[in-house]
Structure formats: structure tokens, C-alpha cells
Amino acid sequence: MTLQELAPAVEHKLPIKIILLNNQFLGMVRQWQELFWNSRYSGVDISAQPDFKMLAEAYGAVGMRVTEAGEVEGALSKAMEVNDRPVLIDFRVSREENVFPMIPAGQSIEEMMVNRPK
Asked: How does pLDDT run across 79-116, given as a tens digit for each residue?
């Protein structure tokens, strides 16, 4: 939530890759509100957010931003070349984008949702 974990990752030169699927919402909470609470959104819009690329760079990590689908492969390739510090890629996705598969609350893995319900 704060990216403070970047400080020790940079200090120890950990070559981790952080992929941020940024829809400018608290994504999973918004998704649950959409799917199970009839899109009654509450407290999930974070369109006023930091510049995650610049924040990563401020910690000494590599910061990248991807806004177009055609940039994905190049960004991932470039990130994999970095071996002396963390890389954070801020992938800007549609505000309505959901993540699947997911397991609804109280359900088992056999009841996993693989696609958006109709």
C-alpha cells in the first residue's frame, strides 16, 4: 500500500519485478462490489494517486509505465534485463478491468470464477 518495501529491495539489490495492474481503483475491492453488490461502489476510487513510476525511481528502483497494449512485450523484456535492483511496471488498464480467476468469499476452489458472470 505504501511501497516502503522498495527501500530494502533496492538496498539489497534484489532483482524483483513488480507488476502493477493500475485501474485507478482498489481493484479487487471494486471487483467484488461490482460482482456481488450490484456495482454499489464505496471508497474504492483512487484516481488521485501517486506517479508510481516516479515513486519507484525515487527509491532507486527502475520505474516504467505502459499505457498501450503494444508496449507490453518490450516493457517486460526490458524489465527482465535489470538484475541489480527492483523494477516496477505501472500497467495502465481500463478502469472497469477485472481479474480472473477468483474464488468468491466462502467458496471452494471448485467454485472458482474463471470469467465474468453474464
From this structure: 999 999 999 999 999 988 888 898 888 899 999 989 88
Instruction: Classify burial at 30, counting beta carbons within 10 Å of its beta carbon; exposed 0-12, middle 13-18, buried 19 or more.
Output: buried
- Compute CA 33 distance to the chain's CA centroid, rounded to the nearest angstrom: 18
Cα angle 104-97-108, degrees, rounded to a multiple of 5 = 15
pTM of the predicted structure, to 2 decimals: 0.82
Contacts of 34 (CB under 8 A, 6+ apart): 41, 98
Single out the residue of 105, 97, 106, 102 nearest to residue 115, CA to CA.
102
Could you tell me the three cell numbers for 54? 516516479
Strands 17-22, 62-66: pairing is unpaired
